Structures are given as C-alpha cells and as structure tokens.
Amino acid sequence: MQKLVLLRHGESVWNKENRFTGWTDVDLSEEGFAQAKRAGQLLKENGFTFDIGFTSVLKRAIKTMHIALDELDMLWIPVGKSWRLNERFYGALQGLNKAETIEKYGEEQVHKWRRDPLEHPPAITEEDERFPGHYLRYNDLTYRELPLTENLSETMNRALPFWHESIVPALRQNQKVIICAHGNSLRALVQYIDNLTDEEVSNLDIPTATPWVYELDDRINQIRHYYLK
Ligand SMILES: O=C(O)[C@H](O)COP(=O)(O)O
C-alpha cells in the first residue's frame, strides 16, 4: 500500500474576490499563504515524507507546494511542473466576478459553465491578452493545445496523459508523491482514479490547501481516501 497526497493550492487573491481565475497567474492571498503553511505542518505532524512532487505552471500552486515542502524541510525533492495540471482554462470568463456573472447570465447557465463536462465557457480570441500563446511558459505547447476556452472534459483529456506518463511511473517505483494543483485539474484526476460519474464529480468541492490522502494498492487502485485536518 502506498499513499498519494493531493493538495489544492491555498486561497488565491481571486478566490477571495470571487473571480473566475483559470490560467490567470494570480498570487496566493494572505490567508492562502497561511493555509499552505498549515497544510505543510499537518503533513509533518502526521509523519508524511515525499520523494517527488508535481505541480502546475501557475504560481498559486507552485508556491503552495514550496511552502508545504518548506514546512517539511523537504524543499530539496524534485518537483515536476506541467501546464497539464493547470486549472481548467476559463476562456472569456477569466477575471469576471462569479456573483455578477450569475446576475447577468442566470444561475443555471453559470452552473453549466462551471460543472457541465461538455459546456464551453465563452471563448477568447488569439488577440486577447489572456491567450496563452502570448506567454513564454506555454512555448512548448502545440498550436492545437493552446486553449481559447476549455470544458471540463477537455481539462480531463489534457491532465490524464501527465498522470499516466509522469505520476503513475513514479508511483510504480514506490515513490511517495505529492501533487499540488487546482480544483478542476484535481477533480479530473480524482474522477479517473475513483471512476466517478460526471454527476458524482460535479458535486465534489475540493477545499483549498487541505491535504487529501489516497491510499493505493499495487495496481494504483484506491483503497480509501481521507482529508488530513
Ligand atoms: O479558476 C477558478 O475560478 C477556480 O479556481 C475554480 O473555479 P470553479 O470552482 O468555478 O470551477
């Protein structure tokens, strides 16, 4: 049996302001920094150690990982970063206030944008400053991989290759793994690991910076999972 820890980043400035964030690279809020520290302390108190970490290319996740590892005095472990673990790309909703968007488009439409696996949020254009093609960190993406919008099923389709090609091999080598990512990229991984239906996963809300421990058997099937609190 081995343990895998999933960690959603600490509260970000835009979480606090209730804004759609997606790939916008906003920082942690003051509370987010404190949450990340507490997550690291909890892991330490419960005797966790890690051989390798994986995170996105967004600073709210990178910093949460860094702060948690610092608490564990394990900043030296290798940490792989991939855009495939990024939050889902929220298209033209990125930056908008969630409550104002509900007022404008109605609860039902906004719920669909947020949780319907096939519903695309309104797209941006390539001229938009939010287009990832303008940013150095996405230089290695192919043109087709650069999103203008992304539904949850597409988030899952781009996250899973990273799970299979990078995370599973580490687990198979019995490495102790921590993944620090985002609400929707973690939801995608959990849907796959737990074989959840779209409806089951849509009811899943992952709290910020709360270590979620998965106990896995030799075939990477989950035995049980629980939050460290
Ligand atoms: O990108 C965001 O706005 C959040 O991190 C996730 O938002 P959601 O829960 O509305 O999908």
Automatic annotation (TrEMBL):
Record has Endoplasmic reticulum as a keyword: no
PROSITE patterns in the record: PG_MUTASE
CDD domains from the UniProt entry: HP_PGM_like
Pfam family, one: His_Phos_1
Site (Transition state stabilizer): 182
EC number, UniProt record: 5.4.2.11
PANTHER family, alphabetized: PHOSPHOGLYCERATE MUTASE (PTHR11931)
Name this polypeptide is given: 2,3-bisphosphoglycerate-dependent phosphoglycerate mutase
Species name: Mucilaginibacter polytrichastri
